[in-house]
Amino acid sequence: MLHAQNLSKEYDSNLALNCLNLSVEAGDIYCLLGANGAGKSTTINLFLNFIKPTSGTAIIDQMDVSQEPLKTKERIAYIPENLNLYGELTGLENLEYFVGLSGKKYDDGTLAEYLKEAGLQANVYKQRVKSYSKGMRQKVGIAIALAKKAKALLLDEPTSGLDPKASNEFSELLVKLSNQGVATLMATHDLFRAKETGTDIGIMKAGVLVEELSAEDINHSDLEKLYLAHMN
Amino acid sequence: MISILTKKELREVLRSGQFRIAGLIVILLTAIAVFISTGYYRSVQQQHYQAQNNERNVWESQDDKNPHNAAHYGTYAFKPKYPLSLIDQGVDKFVGISIFLEAHKRNEAQYMAAADQTGLARFGELTPDFILLFIIPLLVILIGHDAFTKERERGTINLIKSQGVSMRLLAFGKWLGVFIPIAIITVFVFLLAGVLLSSLGDFGQFSWNALLVMMLIYLAYYAIFACISIIVSCLARNSGIALVGLLAFWIVSCLAVPKAATNIAETNYPYPTKQAFDEAVALDKSKGLDGHDPWSEAAKQLEEETLKAYNVSTLEELPFNYDGFRMQKGEEHEAEIYFKHYRQLKEVHSAQTSVYRKLTVLSPYLPVRFLSMSLARTDYNTHWHFSDAAEKYRIQLQKALNDDFAQNSQYGNWAYKADKSFWAEIPEFSYEPPSFNEVLGENQKNIAVLSGWLVLAFAGLFISTKKL
Amino acid sequence: MLSLNIVTEFRTIFRNYWLASITILLLSLCLYAGNNGYQHVTQRQANISAALTEMEASDRLVAARLDSIDKGLEISLPSWQAPNSPTATGDRSPRVAAFEAGELSLIATGQSDMFNHYVKPTLTGDNFSIAFTELTSPVTLLMGNFDPAFVLVYLLPLVIISFSYNILSREKEQGSLVLIASSPMNLKLWLLQKVMIRFVIVAILLSLCLLLMLSLNGSGLGIDTFRFLLAVWLYAAFWFSLAFLINLRGWSSAKNAIVMLGLWVTLVLAIPSLISQTANAFYPMPSRALLINEMRTLQAELDKEQDKILDNYLRNHPELITRDADESTAYGWWQRYFASKDMVIQEMTPLLNSYDQSLKQQQDWVDRLSFLSPAVLLQNSLNHLSQTSTAHYSAYRTSVLSFADEWRDFFLPMVFQDKPFTKEMLDQLPQFEFDKSNVDSPVLMNSIILLGIIALLMFISFGVKRKSEMQSIMYG
Predict the structure, then answer these.
(1) Which residue range is the domain that position A168 belongs to?
(2) Which of B135, B142, B251 is facing C158, going by the closest CB pair?
């Protein structure tokens, strides 16, 4: 579903991403680990066409992102570290708007269904989003992905700053989505959750993917050792 | 302590691209404005000298002529320009440049420059006063608006607070950081103007005192704006709000309040129309003595009184030409009427002025505007002063001419002609503007209001930073 | 996407205080300024009608006196003031040549505070000395008026800037932009829609405020009202398209605000004053002081040659010669007076024309450069619509001067041929009429130029492809 082919990105002669190759298939949850500035967000932004690659291609569903920016965006959903919605609108209205921007239109009942599926409590649907906690807003993000019927999910540190319970709920939702065949690429600092939730793990350093392994093949403490070894 | 704080602020300001670009633009605009104004000023000054000399020439080279014919022929008084008008053109564009001095009539100054310009001139012109009054306060706002909001947005404010520095001292340091660069630009501009003005010979008397006081007034003006910028920056949630708020203050004080004041003044204390004013004067004149009309009631009364006073029975027996005497009496009567009507006009003017003065509470721009014009001798009061001096000269001129007629001819001898040497004997019109001390005296209220603003602005700075 | 955007924008806008505050602000500004304009116009009309009433009263008196003279009765006036003398009537019963306010005069004070709105040209007065400037305090001229034009030209852009400087940057700063940008749609089109929705809100609100202002002050609806609104809409559209272009740069809200305000200062304050300054510098007015000199020297010369002047004058005006008169004796003081006046005027005409010429050149220069500032374009249009433009006053002046000639031509033959003014002539007196429709309207041209500027801004926004555009919008 998501493929990076020799993907490189240079900022003012600074190589942020160096010849990245990776693929995330339907049902995979691929976790990208790495220090700040390792190139995780750059990778995700390249898939979103927020930035243009210096060389190489980002491919979503067999389409080059920079050739078909709109068509590829129809297939993905994105949740950033801080999902900021319109404070003056309710959760339901926010959902209606963002889903609407993808060209999909649902009645309020269906939208409420999606919010419910994303784990949001029914009594807050019609409250303005400025009263939401971060966890609640991230759930609206998931609801957007659900309603959009996204085939791939791009997540940029979605759980940082969430309390463990909210974080856990979020991971469960990811697993549920991956069971429905959604491909997920998630940048994260959370080694524990990467091992728990992810199917594949990649470790990045200075723009290079230095390690790629299956989550099943490694336990928590070995993953931490491996990670720290790469960082030094 | 304060030097550390100020040094940091100054470094930040001077290194910011915003200040560099804006400062450069302001200096460039000032240079253009000074250049254009100097050229304009010199040509106008030269034209006035030339016109004045020519006019005197025309006056002196009159032939033998009846003095009263010469009185009707009249002469012109030209309004001089003063050195500081190079910095502040004030209302010069909106008042006439010369007054025609003739028998029986006080004329308004003619030919205001604005009437000879396109409607666009009403937008204002790129002159030094435009930059000093409008643009530099904007520069102050530009560098001052984010003094505190920036610290808050970057999160450095908590770091600063944790060092145990007094917030008031910090605010004062920030104030200095805004004020010092502006003060440097201002002092530089005024010094440049001073050097320029004292080196140009044909600019008339130039006084450093007036220039320095003018500079202090502008510095006070910028100090007020700097205080308000810091206060708003301290209270506002973010830089954008601070900027919008300060801009609103700028608009209100520099544009909206002065314009609203105009409307209030014009609605409550309207000037009469030119026609109505002239007609009111004509009506009053027709009720009294007309030197040309020996048949009117007033003329007959004067005749009787004069005969009685000199104890003679016919006009021919008087020791002077009664025609000339009557002319002079008529002239005096008319001068009184003009005096009365112009006094009424002045009353309207001072009522209007009081409207502007009341609104200075909302606008530090107003007292500065009026003070600056006064010091440059380009305000409305100077124009009145000139107009009154010209009227005084006109009355003296008429008296000299009528006296000559009365003393040197017989009653009924309208063929009498004064010798052409007589014209040169009449002194030339010369005008001295109000002195520097007089100007300061007239402007006590404006100075008080400006000082009030300054004190309040600093008090506001002191109080608002308490909450930090 | 459009309907979705409209619904969402309305929801956001209605739920914060912005719409309420902008409505109150616009409404109070328009009503206050409209009232000021109305006061100004009312004063002007009151002055004119007072003058007309007085003229009618004086005409009745003149008619009564002429009646008495016809019947051979004594009147209580010296002979030189008696209305059967053409010089007396020509001087003492002038017509009020009035410039009445138009339907929309309240929207822009323009030049109306500087020039007067009625004059009374007389027989012995000359065109040269008719005063067209009003007796106004120069301080009020300097400060200007708080009229609707001020609100529209100066303040409206600021309201628009405050409403549009952060449309995109705000989304970016609060973090919703990434979500928007990850949606499958054109970001520019999305932004354009948001800008246009705001434009429509402002345009409707403003139109309502302005219509209310006009109707409260007794102006009817007409084609000019529509032209007025159109000019205002275009001006508002210009500022919104500028905001669109600036928002697309992807800068922070603070930077957007500073750039937009910088543009405001440049377009509304700096460029107009620069244009007017250069007009003065390139097409300087000949010195009025030297004009006085010129006229005085001429007068001095003419004084010495009175008789020769009369000869010349009559050679040019044979119709004024009384057949039986011996020229050297038949003509008295008045005849010489008019002859010499005419001479002065003729000699001075080229010089006087040079002022009109310079003013025209300045105006042309200003018109040519007005495209540099939409503020100038709008101000010119508003001045024209309210009939307070320089062109209107200059047309009024021309019209008055030609009426003054007509007035003199009516009386002069009587003066030269020593005929009395009779009661029948009262009805034949020349009447002043000022046809304002001859003044060229810049409104259409200005609107087209403004439309062109807006199109240019749109072209720059859409047509000029920048490298990695998305990146620069997202990351500045």
Answers:
(1) 2-75+151-231
(2) B251
